[in-house]
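Review form for a predicted model. The reviewer records the input and the model, then writes brief findings.
Reviewer: anonymous (R2)
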Amino acid sequence: MNGGKPTKIRLNDEEAIATGSCSNSNVEEEDSSMCEAEAEADDKTSADYYFDSYSHFGIHEEMLKDVVRTKTYQNVIYRNTFLFKDKIVLDVGAGTGILSLFCAKAGAKHVYAVECSQMADMAKEIVEANGYSNVITVLKGKIEELDLPVPQVDIIISEWMGYFLLYENMLNTVLYARDKWLVNNGIVLPDNASLYLTAIEDAEYKEDKIEFWNNVYGFDMSCIRKQSIMEPLVDTVDQNQIVTNCQLLKTMDISKMTSGDASFTAPFKLVAERDDYIHALVAYFDVVFTVCHKLTGFSTGPRSRNTHWKQTVLYLEEVLTICEGEFITGSMTVAQNKKNPRDVDITLKYSLNGQRCAVSRTQHYKMR
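Model under review:
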């Protein structure tokens, strides 16, 4: 693996904000209202913590500094001003408002920037500071609970993708907005996303992160190993670790799909390109804006420039020994978690029948 310490599924900044005490309170207030704060925390859902995490500027800094992400959106908007000229735009999950600002500068008639977290207050200030208050209206709240000042919009733009494409499941919010407000023949940006799978050799990292729990200072802590292997790891994979081809699992047409299409089972066949060991399967996604004058998009794959999404690594229980030309077959099932639809449950079925290794197994993973 690259990049030193792995990035957990929930970033450290998010966890600190989501589980921290109320902001803007002095020490005395915290002491006197501790019981009340704890009671309120008990009432919070994981969805509340999700929105709280996006109130902190740190996560927005990371996303804005992701040049692949932000410059792609900028290029899509600035190089296709014919799409935006005099159009009404809805920015879903606007954050700091950067996409809304791009759209306003490209000649949009009006932009409605919807943001549920406290960052909406900052976005309003940013819009005012840059002289776009007459073009951009920031609306604070959940899309599902808001009424727009207009009956329809011409364009919906959003950066909804999460780790493993679907983690955090903001896609359903975009689809809700599309069905409620988008005009006939309106545009959704981006309008195409694809999920891919490949296999890697990763002996050193698996030993350090997973097998470590088998013997901790002479003690058996393998019960934690069972938990650790079920949690996909978000990290940057070195392209030299890739052992097989890359397999397309699922393509989503955001302009036409339904929310149920985000849950699926897809078959795969990964063919070894050399003799090696396989310790994990790796998922990544591509995003495409097909309505542009020139096809535009980006990939989060290990052979592409790094993004803040990195890749999602699913470690296998057993080490697979594979020879060139042999293949792993199986299927991956992806579904929203029933208790918290922003989480993702993954079931991986795989088998290898090779010269040096024969295995057939099912593993379950939980992205939390």
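Findings: The mean pLDDT is 87.
Further findings: The CA atoms of residues 264 and 334 lie 5 Å apart.
Recommendation: see findings above.
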